[in-house]
Each structure stands twice: as structure tokens, then as C-alpha cells.
Write a structure and sequence with these properties.
Structural class: alpha/beta
Order of helices and strands: HHEHEHEHEHEEEEEHHHEEHEHEH
Largest sheet: 8 strands, mixed
Bound molecules: pyridoxal-5'-phosphate
Length: 380
């Protein structure tokens, strides 16, 4: 369906996807209503099995959200006050929030100006500073921002040398490829989100942890059910309510069936954006050998033009845009007392002033996309 010139463009079009799969979703929801196992029903196990075979991880533990997926891994690794954990400042707050839950020190690390992902040199700096401060570095959380996998080779090398675990925040990147592997197999554990607007989204909250470590997977299954041992009335550790709803699992099974096709569409659309916009802005960079899932199509505006004015002009033409992230985490009040690699994060600050995200979803047709690029170019 193409938007008429007067109809506003949608930033993410979940309705178009729903129209495509509605009958299958209705049937899947009806099956759950019929069997009545709303929590830990058979669809949860089936989804986990399908995700494992889709991404190549040995174990998939489905759970309540991306945030809880991250938190449960930290709980399983016994993160405690005095520990230091490293993550980029240019990310959604949940990446750092879970570290704060457990009372550990956060060190905000700068990112690469091209990929927007964690900068290994800045990570080195932060680890040294944490040790100097008498803290115990235990882990690093690279984020696959906007759908592009982080530089896991470089991060793993540093982590190996320093004795740290790596937890991938793949909330935006499930389905992406890193050389011959898929996201979910690139770290000790990988957390993803099924929030509706993520590339693989449910119709509510959900998430998952992927790991090849069977013991970690068992611990996570205990944590997500109140620290259960032989049953939920046998409590062997502190846990939480971290389960995914059966209904969401049933919906996700239907969405996963069309996901690879949607990833291909997202890549086609991103390539077309970049072809049209290349002469005007700095288009997003996907390193050689990697494939993004385009959670966002995020470009860098040239230095100079006023971003808010550009957005306002696009908006007048019915074209939405968004800024992820205008206020990086080291500048947020709730996080301002945590560590900052090297004392300042110049690339993060530069990006927070210059990035702009355009409408991106697998059902963006060419004429609507032309409206987006024309609106941006005329605004510039
Ligand atoms: C969305 C997101 C999360 C949190 O996922 P929820 O399912 O919303 O809890 C964590 N990290 C990043 C980078 C995200 O984009």
C-alpha cells in the first residue's frame, strides 16, 4: 500500500506486517486460548527451539524483555557492588540500567564514528581506569547499535586478555550476521528484545538470551522463575518473574517464519536510501563481512545545518524522523556519577548532535521512500 501524498509516512509500519500475517496470528492465539497454558506453554519451548536453529546458538532462554534478558545474565554471573562493567554511552538506557540494579560500577566507553559501536581503544582506557580506582572489572556489554554487530573480534580479544566475560546487547540486532555467524553466537551470552518495534517484535514485551553454555542456560531458567530448584517452591537463588507469555511466543513463531524475508527487504531498502542520499549526508556504514538488520537507518548530517529545523521541515512534508540518541547515557542525571573512559567521549557527543534516523520497516515501498529522501534533501 503506498501512502498518498497527503498521508503521513509511518516511521515503523506494524500494521502492514500484521495485515500480511493476521490469519496465522489469529489461529496461533486461538490455539493458546484453547489449550490454556498461558505461562510456560508449549509455544515457549517451540519458539526457543526455532530461535536456536535460526541463529545457531546451542541454548535459547526466552524471557520477559530485553532488559530482563540482560539483567538475568548479570544475576547469573553474580555481579555485585565493587564490580566494574563496561558499555557504550551511545545506547538505549537499558544497557546500563541493569548494571545499576545490581549496584556495580558502570564505565561508559566511546564508540566508533562510522559504526556507532563500542570503540576497543576506549574500552582499554576504561578498564585501566577501573583497575586504578580499585574496582574489579568483570564484564563488557557491547551493543549492536541500530542492527549492526559490534566488533566482537576486538572486544573478545580484550576481554580474553583481561579475564572479562562478554554479554552482547543484541536488542536491535537479532538476525544480523557477523562473517559466517549469526548474532546469538558471538559472546558468552547474547540478550535480545522482542519489543514490538524491534526487527523481530512481538505484540507486547518479550526477550531472549542465547548461549552455548548449558550451565548458564539452566541458571537463567531458574532465575526467570523465582530462583526455582526442583520446583518454584524450592528456591535455590534469588530470582524474578522473567518468563515470556505463551501468547507472545505463539505470535513470535509466526513472525519468525517471515523474518529472513523481512531482513532481505530491510537491506534492499537501506541500500536504496544510501544510493539516493550518498551525495548529501554520511550514510550508515556496515563493515565488510557483516549484515545489519536495520533496526534503524541512521545517518550523520553534515556539520552546520540545524537538525531540529531539518526535522521540522521534513515533518511539514509528512515525513517523520527520530534522533537516537540525543542525550547519551554519561550525560543523563541518573548515570552522571559513573565512570567515563578517558574523562570524555568526543565521538559519542558528536554523534548525539548529528545523527538522524529515517523511517525504516520491511514494507516501505519505493514511492514512499522517495518522499522521505526528497523531504530530507529539500530540507538540507
Ligand atoms: C530496546 C533495547 C533494550 C531493552 O529491551 P526491552 O525489551 O525494551 O526491555 C536494551 N538495549 C537496547 C540497545 C535496546 O535498544
Amino acid at each position: 500500500m503506498s501512502a498518498s501524498p497527503l498521508e503521513p509516512v509511518r516511521f515503523v509500519d506494524l500494521a502492514a506486517q500484521q495485515a500480511r500475517i493476521r490469519a496465522r496470528v489469529d489461529a496461533a492465539v486461538a490455539r493458546v486460548l484453547d489449550h490454556g497454558q498461558y505461562v510456560m506453554g508449549p509455544e515457549v519451548t517451540e519458539l526457543e527451539k526455532q530461535l536456536s536453529s535460526h541463529c545457531g546458538a546451542t541454548h535459547t532462554v526466552a524471557c520477559s524483555s530485553g532488559t530482563d534478558a540482560l539483567a538475568m545474565v548479570l544475576m547469573a554471573r553474580n555481579v555485585r557492588p565493587g564490580d566494574a562493567i563496561f558499555c557504550p554511552a551511545f545506547t538505549f538506557v537499558a544497557t546500563a540500567e541493569v548494571v545499576a540494579w545490581l549496584g556495580a560500577h558502570i564505565w561508559f566507553v566511546d564508540v566508533d564514528a562510522e559504526t556507532f559501536n563500542i570503540d576497543p581503544a576506549s574500552l582499554d582506557t576504561a578498564i585501566a581506569s577501573a583497575r586504578q580506582a580499585g574496582q574489579q572489572p568483570v564484564g563488557v556489554i557491547p551493543v549492536d547499535l541500530f542492527g549492526v554487530p559490534a566488533d566482537y573480534d576486538a572486544v573478545s580479544k580484550i576481554a580474553g586478555r583481561e579475564g572479562l566475560w562478554v554479554l552482547g546487547d543484541a536488542a536491535q540486532s537479532y538476525g544480523a550476521r557477523y562473517h559466517n555467524r549469526r548474532v546469538g553466537t558471538l559472546a558468552m551470552a547474547t540478550a535480545t528484545s522482542f519489543f514490538p518495534a524491534k526487527p523481530l517484535g512481538a505484540y507486547g514485551d518479550g526477550g531472549a538470551v542465547f548461549t552455548d553454555d548449558g550451565e548458564l542456560a539452566e541458571t537463567l531458567r531458574s532465575i526467570l522463575f523465582h530462583g526455582k530448584g526442583t520446583s518454584q517452591y524450592d528456591n535455590v537463588r534469588i530470582g524474578m518473574t522473567g518468563r515470556i507469555d505463551t501468547m507472545q511466543a505463539a505470535i513470535l513463531i509466526e513472525k519468525l517464519a517471515i523474518f529472513d524475508e523481512e531482513i532481505a527487504a530491510r537491506n534492499r531498502i537501506a541500500a536504496r536510501y544510501s544510493a539516493q542520499l550518498g551525495g548529501h549526508v554520511a550514510t550508515p556504514v556496515v563493515p565488510e563481512g557483516l549484515q545489519s538488520v536495520w533496526a534503524q537507518y541512521t545517518l550523520k548530517l553534515p556539520e552546520g545545518p540545524d537538525r531540529a529545523a531539518i526535522q521540522a521541515s521534513m515533518s511539514e512534508q509528512g515525513v517523520p524522523s527520530a534522533v537516537y540518541y540525543a542525550k547519551p547515557l554519561h550525560r543523563q542525571d541518573a548515570y552522571s556519577h559513573h565512570g567515563v573512559a578517558g574523562g570524555e567521549l568526543p565521538v559519542t557527543d558528536m554523534l548525539s548532535e548529528r545523527v538522524l534516523s529515517l523511517p525504516m520497516h520491511p514494507y516501505l515501498d519505493e514511492s514512499t521512500q522517495d518522499r522521505v529522501t526528497e523531504a530530507l534533501i529539500s530540507a538540507l
